[in-house]
Amino acid sequence: MNTVPMIRLHSGVEIPQFGFGVFQIPQRDTVAAVRVALDAGYRHIDTAQMYGNEREVGQAIAESDVPRADVFVTTKLANNRHGYDEAITALGESLARLGTDYVDLFLIHWPRPRLGKYVETWQAFEKLAADGRARSIGVSNFTQAHLDTLLANTDTVPDVNQVELHPAFQQPDLREYHRTHGIATEAWSPIAQGDVLDDPIIMEVAERHDRTPAQVVLRWHVQLGNIVFPKSKTPSRIRENISIFDFELATDDMNMIATLDRGHRTGPNPDFFPS
Q: Among 76, 144, 215, 238, which one has the highest count of C-beta atoms within 10 angstroms of its own C-beta?
């Protein structure tokens, strides 16, 4: 069994630093994939209303031998559900699909700054946290400007900000902002959809440690302090991804990977998505 470190969020809730993401996993494959992940030692599952597989995630947890209380479940608000009343109703629908009375973390999936409702939406999140339907609340794809607006107009600092982050897009300024404000950094697209795995530096470090390039990149995330949740529906890859807690990258390895940052996004810019 792999021992995953826990990170204490500023709200006091503890979150496993390493989890399993179900983005782009079809509904027909989600139950089996989540079951494999739970058997491999994952205790953090990251889904979203827009992924369309919350019901299957809940089914997999219910069918497993792992108690619900031992699984950290994250879901995210769909982009068309911004607004105070809409957000509260939307979480109720997620809870019904997941088959649970609460989620461990509820995120605003995208800020939608042109819509101008993320502050109002966050106020609904504060209510959901106070009511216990979300043990912790956070945001996703928020820039520093979005976070500044949120902090200036509401009472609660997000527990986490889930953003695109990988060796080719390391976001050092945003990560420093997070550290300053007590916001945990979660990384989506942690291996840049595979784009960084054939980089000569990553391959060199992997060969030196007798690990796969993906394991090296995921280990890099963990040592940076990021919360990370790679996605796969292949059982061998699911098990391989979490097998990163029996080795450590040296300072020189970390410094070499730091040179790979070229500000390259694989996903959309939060200022403009969705239109």
A: 76
Report pLDDT digits (tens) over 92-108. 999 999 999 999 999 99
177 annotated active-site:
no
3-class SS of residue 82: coil
- Using one digit for the tens of pLDDT, what is the confidence trace for 39-55? 999 999 999 999 999 99
| Alpha carbons 157 and 216: distance in angstroms, whole number | 32
How does pLDDT run across 176-228, given as a tens digit for each residue? 999 999 999 999 999 999 999 999 999 999 999 999 999 999 999 999 999 99
Closest C-alpha to 223, from 1, 3, 21, 5: 5
Residue 20 backbone phi and psi in degrees, to 5: -120, 125
Among candidate residues 51, 84, 102, 118, the one labeled active-site is 51
Phi, psi of 129 (to 5 degrees): -70, -40
Phi/psi of residue 23, nearest 5 degrees: -60, 130
